[in-house]
Design brief:
Strand order of the largest sheet: 15-18-19-14-13-21-22
Shape: globular
Strand content: 15-25%
CATH superfamily of the largest domain: Aldehyde Dehydrogenase, Chain A, domain 1
Distance between the termini: 68 Å
Bound molecules: NADPH dihydro-nicotinamide-adenine-dinucleotide phosphate
Number of domains: 2
CATH architecture of the largest domain: 3-Layer(aba) Sandwich
């Protein structure tokens, strides 16, 4: 089987231990290549390479850094189809989604920060003619970036692009469940002429590689995207070391649907918001609150469309719902469907695993599942499932829906559907959520702050927020 390699000091190398983990194609349920089972020793090598590269990279002009990154962005574009195929096989997502959405977005992430850094400026605070304060924003040094399996290259590049653009050197760990596109990306870094050691990618398990990055005393900032529990573990280690921390964590996002919405558009977009990427996007809406006067009509139209979603081979053009990323996650989702039944929920559609005919008959597929009849405080409605499972519930008043929508420990994203914009703004203001979409979902402008409230995270990514995170502010006060 092909071996994925670590990317350290500009070279593709084996892990020190020479040990590997099986990397499974979830659509067929079989290992198809091997991922390094790296450990703290490999992280140390990566750190040393990054620390050695830092003086030159950080002092390069922003224009020169930008040029290298733009070459990298161009290479992603040229290799879009190959990267998309690798992402689809590795993660289980439909190929068309990777081709048209996620790999182009990875390209945009690099392109966006490569150009943003050329416009990044810092503040000056003159004190009349007594003194002048100016703020220097300098790169931090060697930073750690840890990303999850659901949008592998997209989320990986979303972190490393601002880190590199700001002049830091990076030790990064993609998820061991989906290492393939980060590996292909490391080859593109070599082709683009990224100086050695500027980016280092260490593959392996979270508790071995991820925790070694977090615990490394000289890696002084950590940008993490993943589950809330892992985020808490990371914070426990990093906080007493006074590291800068950016945590993008889980969600349990509500879709609030008022009777005066644009009905057809809301049904269609709610289906998309629920089941894109098998529901494995932290921004997917998994709790639908529907105003009672349209509940029956909405339910009927929504279920009809959900039943029409084709589940199966991610490589086929008409597949809408691909494979669940791993067997463990597949079993976790099925466990939540059982829990929903125990809690008194009624499965309106789906609720079972599927075995598509042909090459994917042993893959991990679950029918898009819609459940009703559950109270908003039960576990099914409070805990993140992160799969193709949603609940629907009626509501009567704005106050009631706000109470239900805000009732979880999470606060990442929500959608509000109404043609009454006054009401939409009022509800948006009262949602305890880092992102509110009104009459749309997943419409992204990379300049906007991205992140969650409550247990959905700490800090914001995107635009200047990300560049601020990856730099240290220093005020210089000059007496005039
Ligand atoms: P995990 O928290 O399990 O893992 C995320 C990353 O952290 C992986 O690379 C993982 O490695 C690594 N990791 C695991 N344990 C540790 C540790 N102790 N120290 C350091 N690193 C560690 O999340 P998932 O990969 O399961 O991703 C799904 C979660 O991510 C969901 O909760 C989802 O909501 C959230 N997410 C949040 C987003 C946001 O922007 N807020 C966006 C996308 C996803 P390994 O894979 O080897 O375990």
């Amino acid at each position: 089987m092909e071996k994925i390699l670590n990317y350290i000091n500009g070279e593709l190398i084996e892990p020190i231990s020479k040990q590997y983990l099986e990397n499974v194609d979830p659509s067929i349920g079989l290992a198809y290549n091997l991922c390094p089972d790296s450990d703290a020793g490999d992280v140390e090598l990566a750190y040393e390479a990054a620390a050695a590269a830092f003086p030159v990279w950080s002092e390069m002009s922003t224009g020169e850094r930008s040029k290298v990154m733009l070459r990298l962005a161009a290479l992603i574009e040229i290799n879009n189809d190959a990267l998309a195929l690798a992402e689809s096989v590795d993660q289980g997502k439909p190929l068309w989604l990777a081709k048209n959405g996620e790999i182009p977005r990875a390209q945009s992430n690099i392109h966006f920060f490569a150009t943003a850094i050329e416009h990044y400026a810092s503040e000056a605070h003159p004190m009349g003619n007594h003194a002048l304060n100016y703020t220097l924003r300098t790169p931090i040094g060697v930073v750690g970036c840890i990303s999850p399996w659901n949008l592998p290259l997209y989320l990986f590049t979303w972190k490393i692009a601002p880190a590199l653009a700001a002049g830091n050197c990076v030790v990064a760990k993609p998820s061991e469940i989906t290492p393939m596109t980060a590996y292909l990306f490391s080859k593109l870094c070599i082709e683009a002429g990224l100086p050695k050691g500027v980016l280092n990618i260490v593959h392996g398990l979270g508790p071995k590689v991820g925790s070694a990055i977090v615990a490394h005393e000289k890696i002084t900032a950590i940008s993490f995207t993943g589950g809330t529990k892992t985020g808490a573990d990371i914070a426990r280690v990093a906080a007493p070391m006074f590291k800068k921390l950016s945590l993008e964590l889980g969600g349990k996002n509500p879709n609030i649907i008022f009777a005066d919405c644009d009905f057809e558009k809301t049904v269609k977009e709610s289906v998309r918001a629920s089941f894109t990427n098998q529901g494995e996007i932290c921004l997917c809406g998994s709790r639908l609150y529907i105003e009672r006067s349209i509940y029956a009509k909405f339910k009927e139209a929504y279920i009809a469309q959900v039943k029409g979603l084709k589940v199966g081979d991610p490589l086929l053009d008409d597949t809408k719902v691909g494979a669940i990323a791993s067997k463990m996650h597949f079993e976790k989702i099925l466990g939540y469907i059982e829990l929903a039944k125990e809690e008194g929920g009624t499965i309106l559609t789906g609720g079972v695993a599927v075995n598509p005919a042909g090459r994917c008959s042993n893959g991990y597929f679950i029918e898009p599942t819609v459940i009703e009849g559950l109270g908003h405080l039960c576990r099914t409605n409070q805990e993140e499932i992160f799969g193709p499972v949603v609940t629907i519930q009626p509501f009567d008043t704005e106050e009631e829906v706000l109470e239900m929508a805000n009732s979880t420990a999470y606060g990442l994203a929500c959608t509000v559907w109404t043609e009454n914009l006054t009401k939409a703004h009022r509800v948006a203001a009262k949602m305890k959520s880092g992102i509110v979409w009104i009459n749309c979902w997943l419409l992204r402008d990379l300049r906007t702050p991205f992140g969650g409230m409550k247990q959905s995270g700490v800090g914001r990514e995107g635009g200047w927020e990300a560049l601020r995170f990856f730099t240290e502010a220093k005020n210089v006060c000059v007496k005039l």
